[in-house]
Amino acid sequence: MSRPLHLDPERFFPAEPATRGIAVRLFSVVERLPILSPHGHTDPAWFALNAPFEDAVSLLLWPDHYLLRMLMSVGVSLERLGVRPGDGSPAEEDRRVIWRRFAEQFHLFRATPSRLWLEHVFGNLFDLKVRLEPDTADLYFDTINAALLTPPFKPRALYDAFGIEVLATTEGALDSLHHHRAIGASGWSGRVITTFRPDDVTDPERADFAANVRLLGELTGEDCSDWRGYLAALKRRRAFFREHGATATDHGHPTAATANLSEGEAGQLFARVLEGGASPADAERFRAQMLTEMARMSCDDGMVMQLHAGAWRNHNGALLRRFGRDKGGDFPTQTNFTAALKPLLDLFGGRRDFTLILFTLDESTYSRELAPLAGHYPCLRLGPAWWFHDAPDAMLRYRRSTTETAGFYNTVGFNDDTRAFLSIPARHDLARRIDCAYLAELVATRRLDEDEAAEVALDLAYRLPKAAYRL
């Protein structure tokens, strides 16, 4: 017999009744605020074309590396989930069969954020009243697919229904941004902006780095065989992105290393990495210098800079070779910030017209490095708990580790950083609930008055991200 799906209205709040009551009151202040999604990876084509989403598998399962990695961990191959290898080898094609396999393993996600988000989507968006289990797999598949064919489930209608005020996508430096142009020309009132992600032309360890730099020169008319020409080309691309609404850049580096080389040293290093075969030390030094150059450009053009450091991407080499990037083979690593950022901070740390938002997958750095740094340097802000840590307990650990040193106002509220469009309301709902739970504890222990806590809840949910990302 199918078991009911129940979303408790007081979920994630403290168990102690009085404190839970405070959290409920605080949440009522922020529950229905507009959603600001200033950093994420949704597909701008959805909003440019406004075509119906295809089906439950392609929308909810395939793009979600959280789901894929867990299923792989118990031996469910990507081929059995319908993900075709790059060499063209066969994969399961029957989407209903794929969904059934997912349902058979859904118990793996108990107490994970993936289940929390998905059940929010299932219950609130598709009005499903029973849990996803093997015997309800077909009910889910048919209900979701039928809904996706209707006008209220088209991308722009969902954007409006979700209460999104602005949504940022992320594109590489060479992207034509044609989908963003189409959105702008359509007359639709939704605000979908791009974010400048230059890793494709700043990371010498990418196999396509040299080819990308050549294309950068062709796109901009600059001589990218020369260090000065290369920097001029990047400035042109940043301006192009700003013309399409960008207010921020994003940098996904393995470490937070920065450097301050002379122009001559930087030019020589650039020549070496452009030739190919750069040593790992050269590649790391070049990425470090490029973070400093991007900061310098942000001081000039006003774009907010984001650094997502500490991910060992594509750790599973066999997975990368067979299926490509973003299939769940990435892992957190230890990350140094205090020493790594010093060259950049020596140059720009005291500037109030420059904002650098720091993200980490190394929780040990929150209280040891990140909160003290953000609590001192005017340019620094802390991004929210990210990727492996955007989960209830980790979000609470983040607040408890950072608030006493950095306060609330050296953080930037919440951003969902997701490819899974339907999960955006669920993720913001969870973040608001966790912040209200933490604030309720402060009120209950007489560390904060409730009226102040309500102001902080509003700031975290809306005002801080709006200000930090210059929206």
Secondary-structure map:
Elements: H1 17-30, E1 35-37, H2 44-49, H3 56-61, H4 65-73, H5 95-104, H6 113-125, H7 137-148, H8 155-161, E2 164-168, E3 171-172, H9 178-185, E4 192-193, E5 196-197, H10 199-202, H11 209-220, H12 227-243, E6 248-253, H13 263-275, H14 280-301, E7 304-309, E8 311-312, H15 317-323, E9 331-332, H16 342-348, E10 356-360, H17 365-374, E11 380-382, H18 392-406, H19 424-444, H20 450-468
Calculate Rg over CA atoms. Answer: 23 Å
Put simply, the count of helices is: 20
- Helix and strand content put the structural class at alpha/beta
CATH homologous superfamily descriptor of the largest domain: Metal-dependent hydrolases
Strand proportion, as a percent range, falls in 5-15%
End-to-end C-alpha gap: 49 Å
Unreliable segments of 5+ consecutive residues: none
- Our count of domains comes out at 2
Give average pLDDT, whole number: 97
CATH third-level topology of the largest domain:
TIM Barrel
Shape: globular
Helical amount? 40-55%
| Name of the level-1 CATH class of the largest domain | Alpha Beta
For the biggest sheet, the summary is: 4 strands, parallel
CATH-scheme architecture of the largest domain: Alpha-Beta Barrel
Strand order of the largest sheet: 6-7-10-11
Got a strand count?
Answer: 11
Structure description:
It is a single chain. The chain has helices at 17-30, 44-49, 56-61, 65-73, 95-104, 113-125, 137-148, 155-161, 178-185, 199-202, 209-220, 227-243, 263-275, 280-301, 317-323, 342-348, 365-374, 392-406, 424-444, 450-468; strands at residues 35-37, 164-168, 171-172, 192-193, 196-197, 248-253, 304-309, 311-312, 331-332, 356-360, 380-382. With 471 residues, it is α/β, with parallel strands linked by helices. The protein has two domains: 17-51 and 154-468, Metal-dependent hydrolases (TIM Barrel); 53-153, uronate isomerase, domain 2, chain A (Orthogonal Bundle), CATH 1.10.2020. The strands form four sheets. A four-stranded parallel sheet has the order 6-7-10-11, with helices on one face. Strands 1-2-4 form a three-stranded parallel sheet.
